[in-house]
Amino acid sequence: TQLLEQSPQFLSIQEGENLTVYCNSSSVFSSLQWYRQEPGEGPVLLVTVVTGGEVKKLKRLTFQFGDARKDSSLHITAAQPGDTGLYLCAGVNNQGGKLIFGQGTELSVKP
Amino acid sequence: SAVISQKPSRDICQRGTSLTIQCQVDSQVTMMFWYRQQPGQSLTLIATANQGSEATYESGFVIDKFPISRPNLTFSTLTVSNMSPEDSSIYLCSVRTGEQYFGPGTRLTVT
Predict the structure, then answer these.
(1) Could you say which DSSP state residue B85 is in?
(2) What is the pLDDT along chain A (111 residues), one digit of tens a residue?
(3) Whether A66 contacts chain B with CB within 8 A
(4) For A2, which of A26, A27, A56, B24 could close a Cys bridge (C-beta 3.0–4.6 Å)?
């Protein structure tokens, strides 16, 4: 069974601080996705990383896929209150392309 | 892209009753998915519903408890049968058209 361990589970920071969320597994994934979910809504895809070692940037968000395609990180620079939400990583498994979700990181950015 | 709507958005139901959740997509899609998101937890795939065939259920989920219909390429229903408080969750419909898109979810509380 493929599992994704996401940490931290909760994060409360002040506006302007930096943060990193980690997503780790003992399994290899064909790709890894990061989603953001706001209350009362479904998850929205932020990025997909496919190649080992790949780094993608989305404004103040930087996503990295580990060289072995088993882990990923999301780094937010100078967090804003609008970044508040649930961040989910999801690995795409090699068989059937199913999404395996991590536990999620509940981020709160205080003004 | 795909825009997904779900009905109802929330419901409070009594133990032992059943609830049918509807999922409508604004375009024709082959693969539709149903997920469960329990309070404070991540998303778990219940089943994959393809039009014209029986739904494929994940380990731990059975058709008698979660019957699914997929009458056409834009619509699906998930029924939560003989509900218990442990079924209290957010139920999410999802489709894959290149990217994966999620509906806003149905928040179910069983008393």
Answers:
(1) G
(2) 778 999 999 999 999 999 999 999 999 998 999 999 998 899 999 999 999 999 999 999 999 999 999 999 999 999 999 999 999 999 988 777 789 999 999 999 999
(3) no
(4) A27
Cβ-nearest to B45 among A44, A48, A98: A98
Strands A71-76, A19-24: pairing is antiparallel
Smallest Cα–Cα separation from B71: which of B9, B20, B16? B20
- Distance of residue B71 Cα from the nearest chain A Cα, in angstroms: 23
CB contact A3 to B (< 8 Å)? no
Å between A40 CA and nearest CA of chain B: 6
Amino acid at A57: K
Whether A72 contacts chain B with CB within 8 A: no
d(CA B37, CA B34): 10
Q: How far is B41 from chain A (nearest CA, A)?
A: 6
Helix, strand counts (H, E) of chain B: 0, 11
Calculate the CA dihedral of residues A69, A80, B39, A5 and round it to 10 degrees: 20
Q: Map tokens 């219909």 to a residue.
A: B69
Q: Confirm if A75 and A61 have CB atoms less than 8 A apart.
A: yes
Neighbouring-strand partners of residue A3: none
Q: Which two tokens stand for residue A62?
A: 């930087």
Which residues of chain B make contact with A45, given a CB cutoff of 8 A? 99-101
CA atoms in the 13 A half-sphere facing the CB of A102:
32
